[in-house]
Design brief:
This protein is mostly helical. It has one domain. The protein contains seven helices and no strands. The longest helix has 33 residues.
Amino acid sequence: MHKNQLEKEFIADHSSTSRGLKALKDALTSNGDAVLEAARELDRIAGPHIAFEEQWLYPLVAKSRGHEFQHHMTSEHDEVVKALAEIKACDDLATVSAASKAEWQRHLQTGLDHVVTCGTLLSHLSTLDETERAEMLQRLQDLRDVGILWTELAAKKV
């Protein structure tokens, strides 16, 4: 394993998730297929990464930052995925009120802000020894192989 492979993969996931959140937020200004396409893509690309954060990264971070911080980070995930699930379940976006769309956009902005905060947690991964990093990278890759959707992950929490 390349020494920084875990960090590179984590950063790549964050970039993809940021682009997905922005694409969906921007698509909400229309009523077309772009909204559902963007929602499906965000659900697909973010699922494994969110699972990695919640199962492995946040418990690691909680050792130094506390469980309150861990709870805050996962509650932001919950806020965003709730909006994502509502968007995906919508049969006709043309019937959705401007206020509801604006609320969804606010939740997606929370997600964009969250990605910035979460990106600062990269240092926690870089302090792991080589064996631990390899194990964490394998966990991330395993989650990608499973390919869980973010909305499926959230449904399992309920």
